[in-house]
Design brief:
464 residues, mainly beta, four-stranded antiparallel beta sheet, 5 helices, 30 strands, globular
Length: 464
């Protein structure tokens, strides 16, 4: 499925004929007619987020997206008016749950008229103490395709900051909303976007002592869940490839572990390696050429590297005890992993060829499931000291701090921009597992709703 970026016309409706504007029938300029100025930046806020507390007070009004006319569409049984409300709700939900802004959603705001999308009533929004305004529209074409436009305005300056538009199939309307949220987030924060992405995870069903575990994928907000495997063999620890095109995961068929690569586009699966020995935690290299995994032989577990297309494995560790996991630094030069060679689970770092292995966690308790941030500046891991909590530290093992305070929170995975950490939480007693997200302040948690229990999440890159 593709999302087509379309140019948006540079002129504002206020420059068009006044009688037509007054009648409220002036159509928005056709975004496909004039490519000049697409994505134009007209000034406003710039820079990167350094103090989250300053940004949490930035008020963003997100009213319902307008439509030129009410029209039935396969995307929404109630037509384009209802679809405009749904689009704005997705944008609002994305921006609300990242800990940076204070958005107000469409349910408590007046719906703008279609001509106002490019000519906002700034005085009205100033009266509502809105500092930023997101306007959007949706049109249904005769071919069934949807055109979605998104505009960000600085209300106090009365200026447009940025705009984008997309032509999408009805089934992809949520992607257009995520792209709108990404545009707003990137423009205001100066950081890379991450909402238009997907998550691979393990869907669990059945009794606690006999779970069926299937590979599944969903959108970054939990929508559009799809099962990839049928549950006849157990699936574990999925990870998206760096280019999003594939998912590597561990499968136990007839009691024997196998590492498979699933091609997202074609649905084909390729066997990478198999063994009768216990095998764990496959992980991609940043260039997508190799897969790390752990395998136990003769009571000792070590980390191996194998070409992603299959072939000869290379052993990278050879110490007594358990060396498990493995997550590359973004530049591919180092690998972080866990080992109990010191007597308890701790976090270690080594060069990509296995040399210079050194312990970095010295803060008490145990440490497991480390994963390097896409930014390279932090490592997320599971801190085991009584309860299991998600924590972060520097690549040198300093500045450790907890992001969660649950009973059993584990297996962190990073958002594509390194600002949000995802993990799964096990409920005390019943054993139910759910996927959660938390921002780097640790103050903004969000539960992703899934129809069955969910574990082992892997946040993929932003979609192409």
């Amino acid at each position: 499925m593709k999302l087509y970026l379309i140019p948006l016309f540079a002129s504002a409706l206020g420059l068009l004929a006044a009688p037509a504007f007054a009648q409220g029938t002036t159509p928005l300029p056709n975004p496909t007619e004039t490519p000049a100025g697409e994505g134009q930046d007209t000034g406003g806020l710039t820079g990167s987020v350094t103090d989250e507390s300053d940004w949490q007070d930035l008020g963003i009004a997100i009213p319902a997206f307008a439509t030129d006319r009410e029209q039935a569409t396969p995307a929404n049984a109630q037509g384009t008016t209802a679809l405009g409300m749904a689009l704005a709700e997705v944008v609002y939900s994305d921006l609300r749950n990242n800990g940076l802004f204070r958005p107000v959603g469409p349910g408590s705001l007046p719906r703008p008229a279609y001509p106002q999308i490019t000519a906002p009533a700034f005085d009205q929004w100033r009266g509502r103490s809105a500092e930023m305004l997101v306007h959007g529209y949706v049109r249904a074409g005769a071919d069934g395709q949807l055109t979605v436009g998104c505009y960000l305005y600085d209300v106090q300056l009365g200026q447009q900051l940025v705009r984008e538009g997309w032509q999408v199939a009805p089934t992809d309307w949520r992607r257009a909303a995520h792209r709108c949220a990404d545009m707003v987030y990137a423009r205001l924060s100066g950081e890379s976007p991450f909402f238009d992405s997907k998550i691979a995870f393990i869907a669990e069903s059945g009794p606690k002592d006999n779970r069926v575990k299937r590979l599944a994928i969903m959108d970054s907000d939990g929508a559009n869940l799809r099962f990839i495997t049928n549950g006849q063999s157990m699936a574990l620890t999925p990870r998206y490839s760096p280019d999003y095109s594939k998912i590597v995961y561990l499968s136990y068929l007839n009691g024997y572990p196998r590492i498979f690569v699933y091609d997202v586009g074609s649905g084909r699966q390729t066997l990478v390696t198999e063994s009768q020995n216990p095998t764990f935690a496959p992980r991609w290299s940043p260039d997508g050429r190799y897969i790390l995994y752990s395998m136990a032989t003769s009571g000792n577990t070590d980390i191996y590297r194998v070409p992603a297309t299959g072939g000869q494995s290379v052993k990278l560790t050879d110490s007594p005890g358990l060396d498990v996991g493995g997550s590359y630094s973004p530049d591919g030069s180092q690998i972080v992993f866990e080992s109990d060679r010191s007597g308890s689970q701790q976090v270690y770092v080594m060069n990509a060829d296995g040399s210079d292995q050194r312990r970095i966690s010295f803060f008490g308790g145990r440490a497991a499931t480390p994963e390097w941030s896409p930014r390279g500046d932090q490592i997320a891991f599971t801190h085991i000291a009584g309860d299991l909590r998600v924590a972060v530290m520097s690549p040198a093992g300093r500045n450790m701090r907890h992001l969660t305070n649950g009973w059993q929170d584990e297996a962190p995975t990073w958002a594509p921009n390194g600002r949000i950490v995802q993990f799964f939480r096990t409920a005390r007693g019943g054993g139910e597992t759910t996927i959660w997200q938390v921002d780097l302040t640790g103050r903004n948690e969000r539960k992703l709703d899934t129809p069955v229990n969910a574990s082992d999440p892997s946040w993929g890159p932003v979609l192409p």
